[in-house]
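Usage

Read records sequentially. Each one opens with the input sequence:
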Amino acid sequence: MALKLLSALDAAKIQLYHFKAIIIAGMGLFTDAYDLFCIPPIMKLIGRIYYLDHHNSDKCSVMPKETQYKTTPTAVVSTLVSIALLGTAVGQLVFGRLGDRAGRRRVYGLSLGMMVLSSLACGFSICKTRNCVLVSLGFFRFLLGVGIRGDYPLSATIMSEFANKKTRGAFIAAVFSMQGLGILASSIVTMVVCRIFAVSSNEPKSETPDEADLAWRVILMMGAVPAALTYYWRMMMPETARYTALVEQNVVQAAIDMKKVLDVPMSEIAEDSPIRLKPPVLPHPSYPLLSKRFLRRHGVDLFCCAATWFLVDVVFYSSNLLQSQIYHRFIKDNNDVNGYKLAFKVARFQAILAISSTIPGYWVTVYFIDRIGRVKIQMLGFLFMALVYFAIGIPYKYY
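and closes with the structure output:
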């Protein structure tokens, strides 16, 4: 009954609303990247504020304050970096399922609202004692991760359901390219905040003042701004026509929503036969997700897609979130460097990598994905990743 509507969506010419959908859906991924990748420089600030190096802990009582070498233990860094990723694994499963049951628009708004509240809560982190701060920060980072991955699959789904057939790959790749801009934005905000606090500080350049405890909180809370803006913009958009027509089985409402946002003649989307205004009771699916029939028809594709995404995420998140440890020669953690300067160095290095590799890589994909195909461009991506990591890893000690 909805074939005419779906054909019109697939054949619709590129319009302003397509680009608006890219920005709105992409801002979700922009916020995701900001929230995930602002943590490495923040961990440097936290180390200067709350930790003394364990090698010097016995001498702290006799050493001058400015010579005490402060660093965050590796176990703490790894935990706070990874706990948000643990939340993302939970969020994808929960919100992905909810998106199919309650609708993309409603669940997307729920995940964005969760991101706003969690970002603000991360900044407050309840108290100022070390253990309390770290435990509460970890808890709220986990909730933030849940919201982030609720947004992640829904952003791609929303764009795919608004896009036409000819440029669907480029539009979805453009949505994901906002992640590179989010990494860059987190680095810029960190550098600006650190520079402002450093200029206003009266402490010696080698010391980290008490006000630094406010700086990292400000950086985290800034992540609530794009999430709140995205929430407002998304609530102004209608539900996707594909969801309304196929899942809710309300083709009339889908046609009305489509006409609101796309310049398509009603004659191209109005069905020939009368259709009920109220959606009928949906029948049970012909076969459930975890069934032999589903696995036989879609199991191989699902496994291959999930496996390649798993492999790329292992590389992407480990190298980006732990790059201050990997490229330590470029980010020297010396006694005479205060927390502001150290966090600034980490953020600057992240910005350089985002500008020189991450962002160009996204836009190369946007340009070529509908020209050479999804499989070929993915194979090229993995090939270049392998070459780069061999080039870094084999002569690592030398460089």
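Summary fields computed downstream for this record:
- The chain has one domain: 3-281+322-393.
- Residues 339-372 form the longest helix (34 residues).
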